[in-house]
Amino acid sequence: SLGSVTDNSGTTPTITYAIGGTPLAGAHAFPIGVSTVTMDASDDVGNAATQQSFTVTVTDGEAPVITAPADQTAPADIGGITATLDVTNLGSVTDNSGPTPSITYRAGSTILTGPHVFPLGVTTVTMDATDIAGNAATQVSFTVTVTDNEAPTVTLTTNSTQVAAGDRVVVNIAFSEPVTGFHGSELNLSNATLTSLSGTGTAWVATLSATGGGDVTASVPAGAATDAAGNGNEMSNTLSVRDTTITETQTQISQFMQSRVDLLLKNQPELAHLLLGSETGRLNSQVSRGTGTFNFANRSDAPVWMMLNGSWTNESDRDLTYLFGSIGSHIKVNPNLLVGGMLQFDHMDQTDGAAEVQGTGWLAGPYFVARLPEQDLYFDGRLLYGQSSNKITPFGTYTDKFDTNRLLASLQVSGVLDYGEVDLIPSLKASYAREAQSAYTDTPGNRIPKQTVELGQIEAGLAFVAPMPLYTGEGEMTLTGGVKAIGSFVNGSGHAASVSPDYEGGRARIDLGMMHRMVNGGQFQIQSYYDGIGASGYDSYGISFRLEYQF
Asked: Span 154-243: which CATH code?
């Protein structure tokens, strides 16, 4: 109905509308863009009008429509606090015409073109699109939520390699990320107690005290602490520290027994003079470097004889105090043979810092002294059996009791060779002592195994007694001395087999001194010695004094 036509005569012609030769008979759907419509007309006599045309322009005014995807949720990457995702293929867009517009994705001001690193928490992603006609779609959005679903890990370490009862163990506790809610009471502990806990975030320090009941173990159970996302930790490794309570206790006992059997042999009473019956009762006092002794004895020809010795030693960190006593009686079978019995008792205290071992024991058994007729050659021997009751405080915290059985045997031959004013006194002695500790259970609950210590000694000596040259005073002054070869072997069973004393092996000892016998019968003696010749790692030297009175 657009446009018009006129003619000079007749009826008004009809206009024919056409698009590209296609007549238009009514409403027509024009495409977007420009379409040319032609107009033609002819009158009744066939005269055709000059063709006219006009254009119809259709514009696109409709915006695209974007459809957003559902909100997204993803776990953080393993070991991290972010998640890498590509969301540029999510959602869709439609348009009424033309090519499908592209979608522009944004996280904040950042345009996303592919995989993107999203942080923990919620991030909003916007979607925009514009068609070729410049129509912008309504912006839509969706969220990307990154969650922390990973449990913190925890690792326990320590510098301690071994512990004993009462020792401190410092444990470093490292979480893989900061945690809260860790109080230390959650620790799984074996043979230890928690004394303190400090730290925050990822680094914590627990201080433990070993009970001595076995190897110390520690671990953090699952769920003992939580991270910022509320995830409980995974179970930690199990930390283990070797406990040496049993070993150290056995070592202290074996050292105690080794020292005691040595002192027991050293303090045995001489028996050869019992056959002579010539010694008076005596009171002796002796002091030497690192060691002190005293002894008391009555007359050897009395029906009952007795002696009491004491010694004390300070060696490195170990202090030893030893008290020994013996009482005996015998009968004279004939002028050349005595047979008797003796009872011995001793007490020893060993301290080494906070550790202490002490014990009291006894031995009893027969002895004999014999002499070759018409000869100054003497034989003596003894065989004793006994027991002891002992206490040990190995670490200064608790005290336990243990018992031992003891055996001692010795045989000696000695003589006197008269070379005018000089007497030589050769001797040969073999001694053996054994002490066996019974097993027991200590306060922490450890079974302390039994062990045995054996000490054997062979002593070959040559002593001399000679007048002091140029002495013109009152009484008698004599020069004394000698040399002695000593062979010691130590054996043991159980843990004692691995503990060796310094005195084991072969060595030699030299003595030099003088003795003044006073006119009133008293006697004063000074003696120096060096022991350890030929022994590696063992030497002993000192000076001693002895004062003796008749009573």
From this structure: 2.60.40
